[in-house]
Amino acid sequence: MQKIQTLGVHHITLTGADRQSSIDFWEGVLGMPFIFDQSNLDDPDEGHLYFDPGDGRLITIFTNENRKRVHNRTPMDPGCVHHLAFEVDRAMFDQVPARLEARGIGHSGVKDRGFMHSIYFKDPLGLLIELACYTFIPPRGSSHAEVMLEAHKLRVAAGDDHIQRQHLADAVVKIVERGQASLSDDRGAKNPY
Q: At residue 149, does pLDDT exceed 80?
């Protein structure tokens, strides 16, 4: 038996409202360029809109002119999607509450998750959307996932309940020391004063 190795998210497809509401939300609110449009190849009564969330991958939306906007929460039964999270940088994150409020879109306010800050709100059909901003930058050649794995190990070793800023900072130090050679024999912390 062998694993099937994934290489990343290829695309995510959601059931959307009508065509214009979908474009207005995904491009008009979240700024995702609308890059491709065709019919749903499995249901010619539906459109299939493609958006770039910022990393060159795809968010696709099935649309139907008979589906209108609702503001109820989508089901959270086992097996259902709870929410989708999209990354924004710090400068944009700080603007998100005001930009949502300017449209009359209710939101959760800023939630500090230790390793990231989050804001939650609903799409036109009630799907919970999260905009997230990491509280750290991974070292060059590393990834957020690598820092999170190292920070998790440090958190568990310390007996802490959740990842905190200290775990992230120490994880970055470990990754840099592991991945970048130095002429020094001793790379430990020093006090030159």
A: yes
